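Supplementary notes for students who missed Thursday's class. We covered one full example, reproduced here. Read the sequence, then the structure, then the short commentary at the end.
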Amino acid sequence: MIRSLYTAATGMQAQQTNMDVVANNLANVNTAGFKKSRAEFQDLLYQTLRSPGAAQAQGAQVPTGVQVGLGTRLVATQKQFTAGDMQQTGNDLDMAVKGDGFFRVKLPTGETGYTRSGAFTKDRDGKMVTADGYILQPEITIPAEAQTINIGEDGTVSVTVAGQAAPQVLDTVTLARFINPAGLNSMGGNIYLETDASGQAIEGTPSQDGFGGILNKFLEMSNVKVVDEMVNMILAQRAYEINSKSIQAADEMLQAANSLRR
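Structure (token representation):
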């Protein structure tokens, strides 16, 4: 019964973490480019009282054995990189990736960050930056005299300037993708960093070689589905309650054993 107390405790800890993951998903339901996470668990070691296939004294073989599990543990919180809904904003510098790919930005540390949020604006020098001031890579500077801005599906950025009939092409927005995007390191602020698990970034042009296309004046919203997360919350809550009942039942059994008298 002491074993059952600790086993049920691991279940409560696991469901608490599960609830934390669900709560973070719901908190970011309106965060542009956010990708929901899923908590994944594994069972712990087993105490083997009799090994499967062990031979008995009469020469017969034990078909199943006796093993008692010792609970569960968290092994991963995996990001789900399914597409979110596209929302039209009307902002000339807003972009959404329709398909595979991340925008590249330069962090203050000099590292390259990757994001699915295409909510860009201009800094004082006209460079396209995120809300935190991270510069889009490659750097694209919008001239002050630009009257209209257009970003094509292939990432080509062009502007129209007063006195010029033809649009002026500035540069091309490039994207990066990874063999294992779930292996990226989430830094907050809609930024991911490359890791050994994700593999090296593969850079390319939008709408080519498997990269997604650019939707100008759109933002990709969070891929969190509120109904699904509410169901996950209920399941986590009920599992937490069931494990607490196991602890309570084990405690009552210990209490009954302690009350025995000769």
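Commentary. The chain has a mean pLDDT of 92. Residues 120 and 130 are 5 Å apart (CA to CA). If anything here is unclear, bring it to office hours.
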